[in-house]
Design goal:
Length: 317
């Protein structure tokens, strides 16, 4: 029942929001964001906790302001995404302004293949639509399998409708396909600021340890492709801005593991720069830092130890 409800709500969003006049969709997104923010649910509290690391000098009032702006930015992402399939393609050229696009187009022209790595900033789907519609460069991406399967199918159909090839993230199966696309001189785009798998690379991120995917760095080493970090942010107008940063070089010396660690840290540093400049547009509503992931067990107080001991004796009896 929960899966059907989730799928139905997303379906309603794609079917209904794109039919609304744009001012109505903007107003709806802001209203939903403010309602969620006022409820102070787990996602909002987690967002504030993450923002506290990004803006360490911020007090409680400032963090609440940032989290409210963050929820509005997050809902702007969803309202835009629901409307993207029906949006006039000319708007991608007019309302998406990306600096440093030559890094991407030069890499494609050279036939080397290009890897774009992005954090959860602003609207990465809108940036992808800009690439396929304005630059007219198709690309391949990877999507996490969602539950229910029908919801995952909706996301795949939505992104494929924007000109993207979407591979499911199932173990290492997608890696080989991505490598082939790059060796053929193609473009792949990966959201790469969060990895909770055992294969994630530990990086220093805002002064604390986090894990980020090894895939972008490994693919660059194995295929000779250009690795480009990208950061995005919202203007206070309908415009979304972004920057394609210079390529991350493959170190000349070191083991594959050492090279991967150095390259992933370089990507993390670019992400941190972009997130620090626009913290309200970082949609990280989940745990990220290792210190937040590892359960901390407090020492038992004497009374608790006594009760625990009695329970153990009773179970033994």
């Amino acid at each position: 029942m929960k899966d059907r409800l989730t799928d139905g709500l997303y379906g309603l969003g794609w079917a209904g929001v794109k039919k609304l006049p744009e001012p109505a969709a903007v107003a709806l997104g802001r209203k939903v964001a403010d309602y969620a923010w006022k409820r102070r649910g787990g996602s909002v509290l987690r967002l504030e906790s993450n923002l506290a690391r990004v803006v360490p000098g911020a007090g409680p009032e400032r963090l609440r302001e940032l989290s409210r702006a963050g929820m509005r930015s997050y809902m702007r992402y969803w309202m835009e995404s629901f409307r993207l399939p029906a949006m006039n393609r000319q708007r991608f050229a007019d309302e998406v302004l990306i600096e440093g696009a030559h890094h991407l187009t030069d890499g494609i022209a050279a036939g080397r293949g290009v890897i774009v790595a992005l954090p959860h900033l602003a609207n990465w789907d809108l940036a992808g639509a800009w690439v396929t519609s304005h630059l007219r460069i198709p690309f391949t991406t990877v999507a996490e399998r969602l539950k229910p399967a029908s919801l995952f199918d909706r996301f795949v159909a939505y992104r494929e409708g924007l000109g993207m090839e979407v591979l499911p993230h199932t173990g290492g199966a997608a890696f080989g396909v991505l490598a082939r696309r790059l060796r053929a001189g193609g473009l792949i785009c990966l959201v790469a600021d969060r990895d909770l798998s055992a294969s994630g690379v530990e990086v220093d991120f805002f002064g604390s340890a986090a894990r980020m995917p090894a895939g972008p760095a490994l693919l660059a080493q194995q295929t000779g492709a250009v690795l480009l970090p990208v950061t995005l942010w919202y203007d206070e107008t309908p415009v979304m801005r972004g920057r394609i940063h210079p390529p991350v070089p493959v170190p000349e010396t070191g083991t594959r593991q050492e090279k991967t660690a150095a390259m992933t840290q370089a990507v993390a540093d670019v992400f941190a720069e972009g997130i620090a400049a626009h913290p309200e547009d970082w949609h990280m509503l989940q745990r990220l830092w290792l210190a937040d992931l590892e359960p901390r067990r407090e020492p038992a107080r004497p009374a608790e130890e006594e009760r625990s001991g009695k329970r153990s004796e009773e179970r033994s009896a």
